């Protein structure tokens, strides 16, 4: 069985991946011993083929998860070998998980990608449109037993946009603060918009100015507040992605208003980001953004503590 999960909306695709793993453990292998996870550069044709064709241990089948295979532009030999391996029959489950695929691919890479996209169990997770996003967040609140006024929900969506990682992070904060009461615009303005400067801009500012001690202290403060490490990393990644976009567009001589319109970012975010981009070169922002993506993978698959991984990210 071959499954391909991909697309810009990595929150929903990651949730789908978790569902598939949980179902496999519940129905096939309660021990979890027959699940292999291969990440990025470690996902060579040899390791994928070996894992895919290996017989399961005390279970009916194995599950092999290959993450970020296309993100690091796999070489021709790897793609050709995997295409050949996939033609062989196996009872095992092979899942390819990728975010938005922007990297130009050679002919074997394109062929492999198209084959995966054409699979029956292929699923693309595009960024949600505004009406879809509102419906998704309403259902999320219902599932989490969160009460929120309609105008407060609209304000939050206008502020955060379609970044589901950040939306979930904001909802976690609002849920803790509201303590069962209905969330209103006042809570959104206080906890989301009002605190954004302290929670994100100060930390990215400290990183940009190479004030490592201050950046580490600000990170420590977030952990003491009980912020989930994945949500925290998602928020930091979101801001550096914004800085990268704003820096690039500012280099094309676009003004603040034009940048906000092009990026669909809140004008406040654009204004604050423009104040920070002078601390970084475009190449530095690209490097930091790639490190953030690598840290995201390490947080989800490494035995190292989340705080240690984030500390190393800041000190890099």
From TrEMBL:
Pfam families: DNA_pol3_delta_C. It comes from the Bacteria. It catalyses: DNA(n) + a 2'-deoxyribonucleoside 5'-triphosphate = DNA(n+1) + diphosphate. One of its GO terms (molecular function) is DNA binding. Belongs to the DNA polymerase HolA subunit family. Transmembrane segments: none annotated. GO terms for biological process: DNA-templated DNA replication. One of its GO terms (cellular component) is DNA polymerase III complex. Residues 198-315 form the DNA polymerase III delta subunit-like C-terminal domain. The gene is holA. Keywords: DNA replication, DNA-directed DNA polymerase, Nucleotidyltransferase, Transferase. This is DNA-directed DNA polymerase. Its EC number is 2.7.7.7. Coiled coil: none annotated.
